[in-house]
Structure formats: structure tokens, C-alpha cells
């Protein structure tokens, strides 16, 4: 996993749709190698940090049933950062593929 991969994952999930923390945790499980249920506090800390940086905004929503929940939404600054992070990840992906290809070739002498 790239360092701080949680941040682009959260930004991408919020680009797909605004959501609250618990649902973000569920959606994150398929994208992130860590155990989001084991570190839900880390996800909420990351969301608060993203909000302080102006990359997401939140508001309290009161559903017809159940408690009020804070819903997070991506800002235009968050969109721009996500685009930059995706490009950086493309470059890392290319370098890793090249490395692994050469590694496999070195294991099978011609």
C-alpha cells in the first residue's frame, strides 16, 4: 500500500457519493488493505483532517428514524487533490509493473 492510501480512498468514495462515516467504513473495506472496522477511529480522524484542510465538508442529517448522522461531501479542492493523487498512483503503478516484470525475467534465465 502506498503511504497514506486511506486519504485517496476516502476522497474517491466521497466523489462517488456523499456518505456518513459508518457507510464509508463499509465501502472502504473492499479498497483498503487495512482493517477499517478495527481502526474506525483512524477513518474518523482522517475525515476530520480532510475537513480541516477544506477537502471535504460535513453536515448533520437527521433521518426519519434513528440518530442524526454527520454526512461528508467532497469539495472542489478535494476533487483537485484526488485527481493529483490518482496521477501519482498511476506513476507508481507503472513503476511497480516494470519492476515486477523485470523481477520475473531475472528469475527465469534464458
Characterize the structure shown.
This protein is an alpha+beta fold and 110 residues long. Helices cover 58% and strands 13% of the residues. The protein has helices at residues 6-16, 21-28, 40-52, 76-107; strands at residues 19-20, 56-61, 69-74. Strands 1-3-2 form a three-stranded antiparallel β-sheet. Strand 2 (56-61) and strand 3 form a beta hairpin. The longest helix has 32 residues, at 76-107. The radius of gyration is 18 Å and the shape is elongated. The two termini are 32 Å apart. The mean pLDDT is 89.
In the predicted model, the low-confidence regions spanning at least 5 consecutive residues are: none
Outline the biggest β-sheet: 3 strands, antiparallel
Q: Can you list the strand order of the major beta sheet? A: 1-3-2
> Helix count, per DSSP?
4
Mean pLDDT across all residues, rounded?
Answer: 89
- Helical content stands at 55-70%
Shape descriptor reads elongated
Cα(first) to Cα(last) distance is: 32 Å
**Rg, Å, rounded:** 18 Å
Count of distinct strands: 3
The percentage of residues in β strands lies in: 5-15%
Helices and strands: which structural class?
Answer: alpha+beta
SSE ordering: HEHHEEH
Amino acid at each position: 500500500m502506498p503511504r497514506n492510501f486511506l486519504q485517496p480512498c476516502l476522497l474517491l468514495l466521497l466523489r462517488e457519493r456523499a456518505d456518513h462515516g459508518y457507510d464509508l467504513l463499509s465501502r472502504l473495506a473492499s479498497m483498503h488493505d487495512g482493517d477499517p472496522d478495527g481502526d474506525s477511529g483512524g477513518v474518523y480522524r482522517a475525515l476530520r483532517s480532510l475537513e480541516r484542510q477544506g477537502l471535504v465538508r460535513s453536515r448533520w442529517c437527521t433521518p426519519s428514524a434513528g440518530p442524526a448522522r454527520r454526512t461528508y461531501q467532497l469539495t472542489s479542492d478535494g476533487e483537485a487533490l484526488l485527481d493529483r493523487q490518482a496521477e501519482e498512483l498511476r506513476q507508481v503503478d507503472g513503476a511497480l509493473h516494470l519492476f515486477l516484470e523485470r523481477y520475473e525475467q531475472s528469475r527465469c534465465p534464458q
